[in-house]
Automatic annotation (TrEMBL):
<dbReference type="InterPro" id="IPR015422">
    <property type="entry name" value="PyrdxlP-dep_Trfase_small"/>
</dbReference>
<keyword id="KW-0663">Pyridoxal phosphate</keyword>
<keyword id="KW-0032">Aminotransferase</keyword>
<dbReference type="InterPro" id="IPR015421">
    <property type="entry name" value="PyrdxlP-dep_Trfase_major"/>
</dbReference>
<comment type="pathway">
    <text>Amine and polyamine biosynthesis; ectoine biosynthesis; L-ectoine from L-aspartate 4-semialdehyde: step 1/3.</text>
</comment>
<dbReference type="InterPro" id="IPR005814">
    <property type="entry name" value="Aminotrans_3"/>
</dbReference>
<dbReference type="GO" id="GO:0019491">
    <property type="term" value="P:ectoine biosynthetic process"/>
</dbReference>
<dbReference type="InterPro" id="IPR015424">
    <property type="entry name" value="PyrdxlP-dep_Trfase"/>
</dbReference>
<protein>
    <recommendedName>
        <fullName>Diaminobutyrate--2-oxoglutarate transaminase</fullName>
        <ecNumber>2.6.1.76</ecNumber>
    </recommendedName>
</protein>
<keyword id="KW-0808">Transferase</keyword>
<dbReference type="GO" id="GO:0030170">
    <property type="term" value="F:pyridoxal phosphate binding"/>
</dbReference>
<dbReference type="GO" id="GO:0047307">
    <property type="term" value="F:diaminobutyrate-pyruvate transaminase activity"/>
</dbReference>
<comment type="similarity">
    <text>Belongs to the class-III pyridoxal-phosphate-dependent aminotransferase family.</text>
</comment>
<dbReference type="InterPro" id="IPR049704">
    <property type="entry name" value="Aminotrans_3_PPA_site"/>
</dbReference>
<dbReference type="Pfam" id="PF00202">
    <property type="entry name" value="Aminotran_3"/>
</dbReference>
<dbReference type="InterPro" id="IPR004637">
    <property type="entry name" value="Dat"/>
</dbReference>
<dbReference type="InterPro" id="IPR012773">
    <property type="entry name" value="Ectoine_EctB"/>
</dbReference>
Length: 428
């Protein structure tokens, strides 16, 4: 289909090019275009739709709220929607996990939370340096961009690289434990690394290619931060909200970050970002970090509704059951193409199928789209297919999406064989 917005929307549009369709309806994990084509959604709004499109509980609460003329915009005044969200967040999420955090509402998107987190760490410690990691993705406003690894998003003219050092993430140097490098650099006054205000990390790098940090590595980083009085910021924007199988991704490692960034699925599709702050380091003066759209009341309402999933003791098991289905299929795909050395990795409901080649991944994405599946690439050259189904996806829909994925991979590899069999290997 011809992109109808080609004349009016900025050249910057991206997903519109990847998926040439006009979408107009979505329920759960099925999204439908204007021509009546259904697509299984493994894109999941890049992690914003963990509870599916138009989640019935969120929608019912929103409809009730709007019909009752509930407050929509309120800056950061107190509204019943905010009170009810915060009360439920504390009762359902924080207390059962013995977590003591204050909640800061920032502007509505993930990068706003990251900006607030690094500003707070800098202000509170009175240090300006931040350590981030290779392949990190923290957003595109200039502070967050400075932490983001991929050079594709950078330009020397943005001037945003100040006061950030990137060190190797877990697994970046094969079996070498990269926490040893951080340890050595922190302990060596001649390493060139200024004592940082914070270390920021994703426990599973989503955009960076589904790189899963081991629990041991995370614990080592957390204990180094503690030892050196450096704040540990976990960016749980993509892999929080249950994506890893637990509400917070750092629960697996048993660590307690000083600051946590949460966004994407927290509002069940409504824009919302929060920063969780250890109370002792909540050094903000009233109104010192502000913004017009903090505290979107519609997001409070939908967020409150979907928190109920976490009241169900079997919810984590349901995620795990779906996770097993994904793993089995990815394993089968890799075994079927053993000559291609494909591999897969992930946790919970975030999985990466590493195609080792951006072109092959891109061909697979196009094939999948034609067959009725939305999926995107991740990693330095978009070589990893990011399998991100909703946590609540029906198993039959999950299986159908995985079937399409398998078929799309098969076709992409078959066409590559065809092309290479037609291409002379040496120039005569
Ligand atoms: C880990 C992480 N941090 C930050 C962001 C930025 O969030 P947003 O695009 O909502 O600004 C993203 C977005 O993908 C992300 O995955």
């Amino acid at each position: 289909m011809q992109d109808p917005l080609v004349q009016i929307e900025s050249n910057v549009r991206g997903y519109a090019r990847l998926f040439p369709a006009v979408f107009n309806k979505a329920v759960g994990s099925i999204i439908t275009d204007t021509e009546g084509n259904d697509f299984v959604d493994f894109l999941c709004g890049a992690g914003s739709l963990n509870y599916g499109h138009n989640n019935q509980h969120a929608n019912a609460a929103l409809l009730r709220y709007i019909q009752a003329n509930g407050i929509q915009h309120s800056l950061d005044t107190v509204t019943t929607a905010k009170v009810e969200f915060l009360e439920a967040f504390e009762r359902i999420i924080l207390k059962p996990r013995a977590l003591d955090y204050r909640v800061q509402f920032t502007g509505p998107t993930g990068t706003n939370a990251v900006e607030a987190a690094i500003k707070l760490a800098r202000k509170q410690t009175q240090r300006s340096h931040i350590v981030a990691f290779t392949n990190a993705y923290h957003g595109h406003s200039l502070g967050a961009l400075a932490l983001t690894g991929n050079q594709f998003f950078h330009s020397q003219f943005y001037g945003s690289h100040n006061n950030v050092t990137h060190l190797p993430f877990d697994g970046y140097m094969d079996d070498y434990d990269t926490s040893l490098l951080l340890e050595k650099m922190l302990n060596d006054s001649s390493s060139g690394l200024p004592k940082p205000a914070a270390v920021i990390l994703e426990t599973i790098q989503g955009e960076g290619g589904v790189n899963v940090a081991s629990d041991t590595w995370l614990r080592r980083i957390a204990s180094l931060c503690k030892e050196h009085e450096i704040h540990l910021i976990v960016d749980d924007i993509q892999v929080g909200n249950g994506r890893s199988g637990k509400f917070f991704s750092f629960e697996h490692a048993g660590i307690t970050p000083d600051i946590v960034c949460v966004s994407k699925s927290i509002g069940s599709g409504m824009p919302m970002s929060i920063v969780l702050i250890r109370p002792e380091i909540d050094a903000w003066k009233p109104g010192e970090h502000t913004g017009t759209f903090r505290g979107n009341n519609l997001a409070f309402v939908s967020a409150r509704a979907v928190l109920e999933y976490w009241n169900d003791p079997s919810f984590e098991q349901q995620i795990e059951d779906r996770s097993q289905i994904v793993q089995q299929k990815l394993q089968a795909i890799c075994l079927n193409h053993i000559d291609q050395s494909l591999s897969f990795r992930g946790r919970g409901m975030i999985w990466g199928l590493d195609m080792r080649c951006g072109d092959l991944a891109s061909q697979t994405i196009q094939n999948a789209f034609k067959e009725g599946l939305l999926i995107e690439g991740a990693g330095a050259s978009d070589q990893v297919l990011k399998v991100l189904p909703a946590l609540t996806i029906e198993t039959s829909v999950l299986q159908e999406g995985l079937r399409i994925l398998e078929s799309a991979v098969d076709a992409a590899i078959a066409s590559r064989h065809y092309i290479s069999s037609k291409t002379p290997t040496t120039a005569k």
